[in-house]
Write a structure and sequence with these properties.
Strand content: 15-25%
Largest sheet: 7 strands, mixed
Shape: elongated
Distance between the termini: 57 Å
Helix content: 25-40%
Number of domains: 2
Structural class: alpha/beta
Order of helices and strands: EEEHEHEEEHEHEHEHEHEHHHEHEEH
Strand order of the largest sheet: 5-4-3-8-9-14-15
Radius of gyration: 25 Å
CATH topology of the largest domain: Rossmann fold
Number of helices: 12
Number of strands: 15
CATH architecture of the largest domain: 3-Layer(aba) Sandwich
CATH class of the largest domain: Alpha Beta
Length: about 425
């Protein structure tokens, strides 16, 4: 993609310009990162626009100008002033049809003469941004997710705030669990990685910590809790990662890259149904057609089959443990509380550092990288090495060793 610095207006070199977007789930720190990227870019005389609602704003060419007054005073605000969405440029719902809008996104950026687009997001955003870079759009990304599971970076912004929120919830549950001699389990976000539940579980002194990387045995947990009760412990707290798996469970395949396979599988089933429909007699088909005509004007249509609502994992765990131990048990789901509110000072500092380095990279025209945290430094790493990978908790991680040394049960058989 040609840089705007090569464009001329009235014989003069036009000022350089960049775009910023926030995609995927929101988290505390996005506004701080927007502020840092914008202010550092403006330091180098680079103009900034912000696309609204993630990649959809880039596709639909919806943006606002960002200047010093726009980004002033937003460092403490949660959420994102630009809005966000989980729309993917290569598979975007446009008027009810799923379309590949990648070329449109690139063309819009080119018409605005953008040097690059800075994408703030987690694993899905990294993959979508990489797809755009493969189409010739200059890209820089920042690692954002409370799951803390982006590869090649020590940490992601949003994680510290979510960890503090989850830890405070565990702290508060201690008092009520103690008062009623109860077992209380709290479900913590994190998708398929256990960083959030593990960090908050250790910091909050949870007695049992269940993470996706270590499959749990419900009977081993029940034995552990029963032994605690026999030792005179008045209560027990369980930190459950939303992606935790029992020994007889398989992980759900919810990777974005497998959407096409899922669609093909679904279409295959539909084709099979169509094939069986072709074998119907003409009379049967006529009856079906009459039935369709009868219901075609009815609105809204009710589903033909019942929709099964799955029991939340933490609910199932609590129910099974209460049955096995006889201990009165309760559950709490923190949900999106972990995504909201004011970012911690640590997250604000991290966002500011990442954004400042992004500004330097833009000024130096170093693109197609993610700004990663490495020790005390923020460094660029190739985006192609980030996209499509997930950083999970190694089973020999020091945090797991710490939890075990302090007597916490990780859900497996000792």
């Amino acid at each position: 993609m040609n840089n705007i610095s090569n464009k001329r207006k009235n014989g003069k070199t036009a000022p350089r310009s960049i775009g910023i977007l926030t995609a995927g789930g929101d988290c505390p720190g996005l506004n701080a990162a927007i502020r840092a990227v914008a202010k550092s870019a403006m330091h180098y005389g680079i103009q900034v626009v912000g696309f609204l609602d993630g990649f959809r704003g880039l596709v639909e060419n919806r943006y606002i100008r960002l200047d010093d007054s726009t980004v002033s005073g937003i460092i403490t605000l949660g959420g994102t002033l630009l809005g966000s969405s989980r729309d993917k440029p290569h598979k975007m719902n446009m008027g009810g049809s799923i379309m590949d809008m990648t070329d449109v996104a690139v063309a819009n950026a080119q018409r605005l003469n953008l040097d690059c687009v800075v994408c703030l997001g987690g694993n899905g955003t990294q993959k979508n941004a990489y797809r755009l870079s493969q189409k010739g759009l200059n890209i820089i990304t920042l690692p954002k997710t409370i799951d803390n599971d982006v590869v090649l970076t020590d940490t992601c912004f949003g994680y510290d705030t979510a960890k503090c929120i989850a830890t405070e919830a565990i702290d508060r549950l201690h008092t009520t669990a103690s008062s009623h001699h109860r077992l209380i389990a709290v479900e913590i976000m994190g998708h398929s990685a256990g960083w959030l539940a593990l960090g908050a579980g250790i910091a909050g002194g949870a007695d049992v910590i269940l993470i996706p990387e270590i499959k749990y045995d419900i009977h081993a947990i029940a034995d552990y809790l029963t032994a605690r009760r026999h030792r005179g412990k008045r209560f027990s707290i369980i930190a459950v990662a939303e992606g935790a798996l029992a020994v007889d469970e398989k992980p759900e395949d919810d990777d974005d890259d497998n959407d096409e396979a899922k669609s093909q599988k679904k279409n295959g089933k539909q084709n099979g149904d169509k094939k069986s429909d072709d074998t119907k007699s003409d009379d049967a088909k006529s009856d079906d057609a009459k039935s369709d005509d009868k219901t075609s004007d009815e609105s809204p249509k009710l589903p033909q089959k019942p929709i099964m609502i799955r029991e939340p994992k933490v609910s199932r765990i609590v129910r099974e443990l209460q049955e096995l131990t006889g201990i009165d048990a309760r559950m709490t789901q923190l949900g999106h509380v972990q995504r909201g509110g004011t970012p911690t000072p640590a997250d604000r500092l991290l966002c500011t550092r990442l954004g400042a380095i992004a500004g330097e990279l833009i000024a130096a025209r170093q693109y197609d990288v993610m700004v990663a945290v490495r020790g005390d430094d923020c460094v660029p790493v190739p985006l192609k090495d980030v996209a499509g990978h997930v950083r999970t908790v190694p089973e020999d991680h020091p945090w797991i060793k710490t939890a075990r040394l302090l007597g916490s049960c990780m859900g497996d058989v000792p």
